[in-house]
Amino acid sequence: MNTDDLQQAKKTIREFHAAFDAAPASDLAQVLADHTTPDYSWRGMHPFYEQDGADAVVTAFWAPLRNSFTSLQRREDIFLAGRNFIDDGNTTWVVSMGNMMGLFDNGWLGIPATRKMAFLRYAEFHRVEDGKVAESALFCDVLSIMQQAGCYPLPPATAADIIQPGPRTHDGVMLEAQPPEEGEKTLTLVNEMIADLSELNKSGENHCPPEVLQKTWHDDMIWYGPTGIGATYTIPRYQEQHQHPFRTHLKDKVFNGHVTRVAEGNYLGFFGWANLTNTPTGGFLGMPGNDTRADMRVVDIYRRDGDKLAENWVFIDLLHWLSMQGLDVLQRLRHED
Predict the structure, then answer these.
(1) Which of 175, 69, 60, 177 lies closest to 115 in space, CA to CA?
(2) What is the pLDDT of residues 264-312, one digit of tens each?
(3) Which residues pair with 121 in a beta bridge?
(4) What is the pLDDT of residue 5?
(5) What SS3 class is residue 204?
(6) Which terminus of the chain is more exposed, N or C, with fewer CB under 10 A?
(7) Is residue 277 within 8 Å of residue 256, measured between CB atoms?
(8) 3-state SS of the chain: helix, strand, coil percent to 5?
(9) CA angle, 316 as apex, 50 and 181 as ends, to 5°?
(10) What is the pLDDT of residues 208-237, one digit of tens each?
(11) Across the chain, what does the average pLDDT equal?
(12) Residue 207 above 50 pLDDT?
């Protein structure tokens, strides 16, 4: 792995973010086009989905977001680059995660404005090719904005719905090159954890023994889940407040793989499209049991501390998962208006 190449990819994204975040609304499409390849493709959560080209991306996502959240600023907690483990290192990806903060001055997706500060959790993955962005995926927590606006549409979460912090160690924004061997340690550990969970899925065991998690996680691990599930702390509470409900109320879970999985230093990020397919047995997010197979598009970002994982930030496109079962939460909100 050539750290100079990774540093150049980071530079590409820093320059892109600086120009794009500072651009007036009228220039967004041109600035995005200047920093992307002619065949640029973009993935977004429900209701944005796949878009091709700068104009389509700005029209679908960025222009409405900028109109709704004035004085928008990117508050970044994690920034890393790496070669993609999934394609044997043939592509380079840069990951940015944090919050976009603004004044929620105009309605967004049918969600009523509050005229107060709002925090939109995001995780962004960019594939860099010859100094340009060739492909992006942007996950953001739309449900968190509904919650902040007082129109949360789901049953109470099993864990804590909070404005989630960045890393406890405050070292997630890695502008400088990291020792390659540290990234390899992080990748190896996460791969081991994924293998353990895959075996658990195959076994059909819903109540995972804590010893399985203790192989790769610190006892005081922190799991920051999406709004709708929430954040939880320590292995026992993680199992009580997320893992056991998730495993009990969803069946026939199949892991579909990842688009990218990259590590640098003590951090790693991946996403899938879709990572996981499952069938509700009833109770998860208030949905009844049914025979509909539904996809979960997921981001996981990890922090390793020594020889085990310490923190995990998770994004799940729950609105897409619900829509595949016939519940379009945003459409229902608009109809209520």
Answers:
(1) 69
(2) 999 999 999 999 999 999 999 989 999 999 999 999 999 999 999 999 9
(3) 99
(4) 95
(5) coil
(6) C
(7) yes
(8) 35, 35, 30
(9) 95
(10) 899 999 999 999 999 999 999 999 999 999
(11) 95
(12) yes
Q: Find out whether 127 and 136 touch, Cβ atoms under 8 Å.
A: yes
Task: Say what the pTM is.
Answer: 0.96
Please check the confidence at residue 85 and state whether its pLDDT lies above 90.
Answer: yes
* CA–CA distances in Å: residue 157 to residues 4, 122, 144, 278, 284: 44, 20, 12, 20, 10
End-to-end Cα spacing for the chain: 53
Residue 150 is encoded by which pair of tokens? 């007082």
Give the whole-angstrom CA distance, residue 164 versus residue 161.
Answer: 8
Q: How many residues does the chain have?
A: 337
Closest by alpha carbon to 46, among 287, 300, 317, 324? 317
| C-alpha to C-alpha distances, 9 to 83, 131, 178, 217, 252, nearest whole angstrom | 10, 7, 14, 30, 39
Distance CA 299, CA 138 (A): 10
CA dist 65 and 72 (Å) reads: 9
- Dihedral angle of Cα 52, 56, 62, 66, to the nearest 10 degrees: 170
C-alpha 129/C-alpha 133 separation (Å) is 6
Residue carrying structure tokens 């449900």: 143
